[in-house]
Amino acid sequence: MNYSETDLHTLKTFYERQLLQDTVPFWFPRSVDEQYGGYLLMRDQDGSLIDDDKAVWIQGRAAWLLATLYNTVAPKQEWIDASRSGINFLFDHCFDTDGQMFFHVTRDGKPIRKRRYFFSETFAVIAMAAYAKASGDEGIAQKARELFGKCIEYATVPGLLPAKFTSTRPSKGIGVPMIMINTAQQLRETIGDERCDGYIEKWIKEIETDFVKHDIKCVMEQVAPDGSIIDHIDGRTLNPGHAIEGAWFILHEAKYRNNDAHLIELGCTMLDYMWERGWDKEHGGILYYRDVYDRPVQEYWQDMKFWWPHNEVIIATLLAYTLTGNEKYARWHKMVHDYAYDKFHDPVNGEWFGYLHRDGSLAQTAKGNLFKGPFHLPRQEWYCMHLLKQLK
């Protein structure tokens, strides 16, 4: 199949309506914590709170979303004010005395948990950068660039962060180059930083060289330091939706570079490999984990359907289609779009449920927790809306 101009216009209208009339209103303004700052995002299907703790990742993500809406959709005062609340909460409560950020804090900002990696920092970078663009606050912009520099150190200097494993079986994950590509892209496209282009090139090359395996048509989630496959359960475990998220980061870079042919090929190849590995041919939707050699996967949720991989695959397939015109990607986009909005979307209360069983039945009703909040879904709807607007 191919999408006609009318089809693409209908999709653009759909994503815009879902974002602004369904997804964002589920979260805001009620999630802004007027007492302590930041956001109260752990919510049940009807929007009621199930916990008032705060996940630092999602504080940054929500602040990014609100500032991005201000920058790219409409300069609404309530959006920039709400974004500022999240930025202030991050500065006031989410940095430890050693400069690293926490992962989980109480409502009033007391630390509960810290993790061994720096994703809280990357989400803070994109939040600060988007807010700095919205507000014109050069002080915040400089802090975003400084924190990006710390993220580069964390990503490149061995031993700077505590190790999760011993040195017996060294490994590295695709998550670090992936998240750093997107962080650099966001920084570059909001306030700018001369380091971004070079580092994006470096991290794409690392993914292409070490994680993309053409001989077995796969994108690995974890490899040995030299890029070889670690033939143990953890080393064999694939996350198709995560790899496809990496594919669209690379396709986005291809588009930024005036449709760079090599990057289009690389991103589409990653999408092709992991669609084949991840799409559930029996029930539809994206399976959460697979084994590279089709052996049993250790995690018990391996065949569940989580919300966020579907958001990433919706973006990747639409972006691949607009860059290549290949009807396969239009067909795949329609398949994942139709599945996701039929199974995850809550037509009564808005937003998406997060977790389904393999057959598409609801596993639980939470819309927000330590990992789910206003990011993957609104980012998908925002990105697809703007991508389709640019086709005019």
UniProtKB/TrEMBL annotation:
The lineage of its organism: Bacteria, Pseudomonadati, Bacteroidota, Sphingobacteriia, Sphingobacteriales. SUPFAM superfamilies: Six-hairpin glycosidases. GO terms for biological process: carbohydrate metabolic process. Belongs to the N-acylglucosamine 2-epimerase family. The keyword Calcium does not apply. It comes from the Bacteria. Keywords: Isomerase. It comes from Mucilaginibacter rubeus. GO terms for molecular function: isomerase activity. Pfam families: GlcNAc_2-epim. This is N-acylglucosamine 2-epimerase. Coiled coil: none annotated. InterPro entries: 6-hairpin_glycosidase_sf (IPR008928), 6hp_glycosidase-like_sf (IPR012341), AGE/CE (IPR010819). The keyword Lyase does not apply.
